[in-house]
Specification:
This protein is globular. Helix 1 runs parallel beside helix 3, helix 3 packs antiparallel against helix 8 and helix 9 runs antiparallel to helix 10. Helices cover 51% and strands 14% of the residues. The chain is of the alpha+beta class. The strands form three sheets. It has a four-stranded antiparallel sheet with strand order 2-3-7-6, with no helix packed on it. A three-stranded mixed sheet has the order 1-4-5. A two-stranded antiparallel ribbon has the order 8-9. The structure holds coenzyme a persulfide (COS). Coenzyme a persulfide (COS) binds next to helix 7 and helix 11.
Amino acid sequence: MIRDEETLNLLLAGVRRFVREVLLPQEQEVAETDQIPPAVVAQMRELGLFGLSIPEAYGGLQLTMEEEVLVAFEIAYASPAFRSLIGTNNGIGSQGIVIDGTEEQKQHYLPRLAAGDIIGSFALTEPGSGSDAASLRTSAVRDGDHYILNGTKRYITNAPEASIYTVMARTDATRKGAGAISAFIVERGTPGLSLGKIDKKMGQRGAHTCDVIFENCRVPAANLIGGKEGVGFKTAMKVLDKGRLHIAAVCVGAAERMLEDALRYAMEREQFGHAIADFQLIQAMLADSKAELYAARCMVLDAARKRDQGLDISTEASCSKLFASEMCGRVADRSVQIHGGAGYISEYAAERFYRDVRLFRIYEGTSQIQQIVIARNMIKAAQG
Ligand code: COS
């Protein structure tokens, strides 16, 4: 749903200009230094990019899902690290509070997340629990008006920058599975919370992950999301339904960038006396990429519109993430192929994007997890 075409077009044009004029010229430096310059972060704040999906009542832009994916298409045209910095505040790092938080929790945290004054982070994965998220072992034991958390969370995006963590922990050690999991907001600086070393990743330099470690970390009971135990896994899944759709949109934006770069290169590069774009084997790669990209874009928009109608889009979000992230991987591969030797050299964006986009098929649920979600939903629906 688009609420006001004119306002949205202004926002999209502003983001597009910011991407072209500010982010693209900084990409190489971010890749080399592994840091997004503070001046760029300040401009992201001014544009409202940290609060795209946060309700207006708490200082955000309250974009509908359709509007949000349109913005994501634009921002993902630049290196994924830029999107990653705003990604958690708009997605997994804030939505637990937006969807299931108490009024006090919303008032306390959302305005600062929306403004980009603080970064939010989502701590689900553990050393022993990845795809099988319901097997997580971090414990939260009630002690008066606090909970005591123990455990380790792994590969947590933006954890080094974050001021608050949405942490899924087991509040009933005697029960296995999803029903004993609760979600907490844990503030950085809480005694007993520490961070591991920043992970060395394959790509997305400028975006950081690390372990988040809890050792007898005392968290006020008031920070239990929604004030209710045992529903934290469902909160996490609802957050991921939206997050997966957002990532699918990011895949579309990144693929568009890679395809434009590949097309430009193919039209400039000459071999056998012709621009290589004249050759049908190159054209096949361009055409397949274009067709798949178009399909992914349509899927993402359709799923976003359905979510705006209030429909359950668990299946559509997983279909979109599965198809768009795999499509993005294929486009990345073809882009390197079209660039030939140049595609293997770090001077060209093709090489960097090839590594950066590999993550899309893994985080917020691997392609295989999306397949499981889709098939299970089909079977459940058929059983009635
Ligand atoms: N929305 C709301 N509730 C949901 C839901 C959703 N999208 N998906 C599942 N639930 C509920 C189920 O209805 C069930 O509730 P009941 O027990 O009341 O019936 C509960 O959550 C447990 O669901 P399920 O039995 O399907 O859990 P599984 O342990 O089988 O796990 C998968 C389901 C595999 C889909 C889940 O663990 C998953 O998404 N894993 C990947 C995790 C991930 O994406 N990690 C990335 C890290 S975050 S960057």
